[in-house]
């Protein structure tokens, strides 16, 4: 398991797949990353959102892995207990929903007037008293 734990920070689990994937990332990119090695794939599954790292609780990760994060990560961290989700073989990254926020117009300006409404539709504008 490989996860982005911050800007330019990658957390890597101890599996051969994780190490192989990290090597591929190093070979294919010109970016440099600070690497944190953890002792298994389960604690290496973290999220970085809104400037904070979200990870499993200290009991679930183990004290060794938490001490590595305590020592190396200086920004905000939030711990989440996932014991119930472990029964379903769920990871922390499978529980997130990514939302792409786009800027929307806050005020819609229109030059449609009563003549336009009457000419092009069967709608008519009701007076203010109609809705009371």
TrEMBL record:
Keyword Transmembrane applies: no
GO terms of biological process kind: arginine metabolic process; citrulline metabolic process; positive regulation of nitric oxide biosynthetic process
Signal peptide as annotated in the record: none
Chain segments annotated as transmembrane: none
UniProt xrefs under Gene3D superfamilies: L-arginine/glycine Amidinotransferase, Chain A (3.75.10.10)
Entry GO MF terms: amino acid binding; dimethylargininase activity
Keywords of the record: Hydrolase
Keyword GTP-binding: no
Family: Belongs to the DDAH family.
Protein's recorded name: Dimethylargininase
Organism: Octopus vulgaris
């Amino acid at each position: 398991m490989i996860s982005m734990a911050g800007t330019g920070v990658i957390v890597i689990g101890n599996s051969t797949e994780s190490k192989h994937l990290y090597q591929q990332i190093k070979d294919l990119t010109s970016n440099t990353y600070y690497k944190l090695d953890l002792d298994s794939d389960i604690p290496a599954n973290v999220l970085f959102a809104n400037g904070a790292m979200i990870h499993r609780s200290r009991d679930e990760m183990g004290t060794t892995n938490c001490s590595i994060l305590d020592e190396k990560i200086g920004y905000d961290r939030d711990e989440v207990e996932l014991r119930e989700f472990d029964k379903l073989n769920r990871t922390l990254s499978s529980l997130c929903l990514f939302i792409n926020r786009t800027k929307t117009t806050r005020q819609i300006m229109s030059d449609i007037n009563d003549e336009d409404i009457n000419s092009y539709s069967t709608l008519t504008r009701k007076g203010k008293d109609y809705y009371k």
